[in-house]
Amino acid sequence: MSKKSIIQLSEFDITQKIIEAMSNVCTRSVLFSVKHESKDVTTISEELKISISTVYKTLSNLEELALAEVDKYVITPDGKKIKLYRSRIGKVEITLENLEPTLNLHPNAKN
Q1: Model confidence, pTM
Q2: Quick check: 71 and 86 in contact, CB under 8 A?
Q3: Residues 6+ apart with CB under 8 A from 78
Q4: CA dist list (Å): 55 to 3, 11, 17, 45
Q5: What is the mean pLDDT of residues 11-19?
């Protein structure tokens, strides 16, 4: 059985996927925007000055990695259901020793 290359391993390695996500400034900005309070996509978009579609895509990726979640739903006066997102993590630590990354995720404290 042949040994998998680094690229092949990274496709299936959740630690690697999280490290890659956290290396993206947009992803970090969105994640830490919802660290202390739940926010909807429009609020995040306006706060960070990035497109709504980028926020949706980023939040979808963060949810897939279990780094963010829908904290609650709000119903607007006209009956529209709005998702409010919140970070599931409060701190990320990435260390590299002998070319092997170690990822430590610390839970986000609910206020």
Answers
A1: 0.80
A2: yes
A3: none
A4: 37, 23, 18, 6
A5: 77
